[in-house]
Design a protein that fits this description.
Blueprint: E1 25-27, E2 30-39, H1 45-54, E3 58-60, H2 63-73, H3 85-99, E4 107-111, H4 114-124, H5 130-141, E5 148-152, H6 168-184, E6 188-192, H7 197-208
Parallel strand pairs: 2-4, 2-5, 3-4, 5-6
Antiparallel strand pairs: 1-2
Length: 213
């Protein structure tokens, strides 16, 4: 992503609403808990998610990376500059979340959520679109995600990829914007500090394995 300064843009009206203690919802007679991993680019979320999946947990991958990869496969050098980029990410996040409902499980772990998309829009300097506003309103109203969010801390460096063109310094700014967005929308951040991927995965499992309250 391009190196640009963090700018404060429009916040959503739902920011001040009270979020429930839990994001548990009923899916076909069972209680569903959806947890989110967030943090700086290159912080190791994907490694944690893969380990969780390997141990039998239901996981959902990051939408923004998929949208970028799809655009680049069509010849777009920088899909994040496309006017519809944020809305495309929102649409994919919603589609994946609603499709994941069919999974025969009571716990799911998501690599980012629409709150991350809000932070991404803030970082890129985009105004909050009606699609993003509506989706955040939906996940708040329907209590889609758990109030507790796993914040995966940066590794002290940021390895660039085709979809991740950002310096480590800018990744720290991006990290701060994510933290601000989640706190603004009433989520509780659980720090996942630097460590071996297996240890970080175990820290996540210690929370998601607790009985539903």
């Amino acid at each position: 992503m391009p190196r640009i300064a963090v700018r404060v843009v429009q916040r959503l009206d739902v920011r001040g609403r009270n979020h429930s203690r839990t994001g548990q919802t009923k899916e076909r007679g069972r209680t569903m808990r959806r947890y989110v991993l967030t943090g700086a680019p290159g912080a190791g979320k994907t490694s944690i998610l893969r380990l969780l999946e390997a141990t039998g947990h239901s996981t959902v991958g990051e939408a923004a990376t998929a949208v970028i990869a799809s655009g680049q496969a069509r010849g777009e050098a920088e899909p994040w500059t496309r006017a519809s980029f944020i809305d495309d990410v929102v649409a994919l996040q919603r589609r994946r979340q609603t499709q994941a409902v069919a999974a025969a499980t009571t716990v799911q772990i998501y690599d980012r959520s629409p709150i991350c998309t809000h932070a991404l829009g803030v970082y890129l300097g985009y105004p909050v679109s009606s699609a993003l506003s509506a989706e955040i309103d939906r996940i708040t109203r329907e209590r889609i995600y758990e109030r507790q969010v796993f914040f995966v801390r940066n590794l002290g460096f940021c390895e660039p990829t085709a979809a991740r063109r950002i310096s480590f310094e800018d990744s720290l700014k991006f990290e701060r914007v994510h933290e601000e967005s989640y706190r603004a929308f009433g989520y509780e951040l659980i720090d996942i500090p630097v460590g071996a991927p297996a240890d970080r995965m175990a820290a996540v499992r210690s929370t998601i394995s607790r009985p539903a309250r």
